[in-house]
Amino acid sequence: MFVGIRELRSAKGRFALITVTVALVALLVSFLSGLTGGLEHRNIAALDTLGGTSAVVSGTGDPSLDRSALTEEQIGAIAEKGPFTSVAFSRSTVGEEPVSVAAVSGDRPEVPSPAPGEVIVSSALAETAGITTGDSVDLWGGTKTVAGVSGDDWYSHQPLMWANGAEWAAQPQAAGQGAATTVIADAPADALEGAAAGTTVVAASDLPETMSAYKAENTTLTTINWMLMAIAALVTGAFFTVWTVQRIPDIATLKALGATTASLMRDALGQAFVVLVIGVGVGLAITVAAATAIGSGLPFVLTAGTTVFPAIILLALGLAGAGAAMMFIRSASPLSALGGAR
């Protein structure tokens, strides 16, 4: 790294420019990654809370949670296969705050299951609507008592309220929307196949993929993220390619003085690594600081998966881009430094 460090010191302007560029790309990637995670959480956090092994939705062929409407007969047939939770998703308001409502029934203890006349609200709803345990809220034309606050649960980008499934089934709108949207069971998918006619069984982990809004949103943001990472590799590769081409006479001279091709390649990659580490580190630090300052103002998830993982990918792709310039180091001839004719 002797030559690489000396070049970093002597050409401060050039390397500052590429470092700032890498930092901006890293900022974009890490911030968008955290935003993607936050939007995903606010879209399907309720499904994560429901957990389970398998999920059953109505219809055959291409499953859709958006269109699913299970009857009581179908729910009863599935219930015979073991512990289950039926959940009917609907929308309501608490004051002026729009909320999603998950009416649940079943015998899986890990799922919030309020008694008749009660609801359990998520921490986000409790904060935004100023609700505490013991308060009353209007739901389905009646008044329900808030029995507790449980988890940061969201569904379809709205804070969630857990309600009693039997009370939902008694509502007039349940006749058109079904007694449940889906049934979550702990039994394996093959055990539930054919349990209820006119239904489709999917893995519980794949249930979000049956939501059209989730697929469109997640696919778009993920694609943008990967495109930004590819841009980082191209920008880094282009810079070091141009830089290496400009240094070919110096590289040839070093070879004529006895430097090996391998050592010069290691030196160049080490130089790129320093630039990438500083640039990615600065971008990541700005993202963490901004996310901390914003707090819950944006749907942002700050985890290793949204910060460290993108940073590692950026480093790897950046080094791969810089590696494209190594062919010029390999092809530089020491004879050119000696006049070429001797």
Automatic annotation (TrEMBL):
It is a multi-pass membrane protein. The chain crosses the membrane at residues 15-35, 226-245, 273-302, 308-329. Keywords: Cell membrane, Membrane, Transmembrane, Transmembrane helix, Transport. Residues 224-330 form the ABC3 transporter permease C-terminal domain. It comes from the Bacteria. The keyword Transmembrane helix applies. Pfam families: FtsX (PF02687). It is found in: Cell membrane. GO terms for cellular component: plasma membrane. Its main location: membrane. PANTHER family: ABC TRANSPORTER, MEMBRANE PROTEIN (PTHR43738), HEMIN TRANSPORT SYSTEM PERMEASE PROTEIN HRTB-RELATED (PTHR43738:SF1). This is Putative hemin transport system permease protein Hr tB. It comes from Dietzia timorensis.
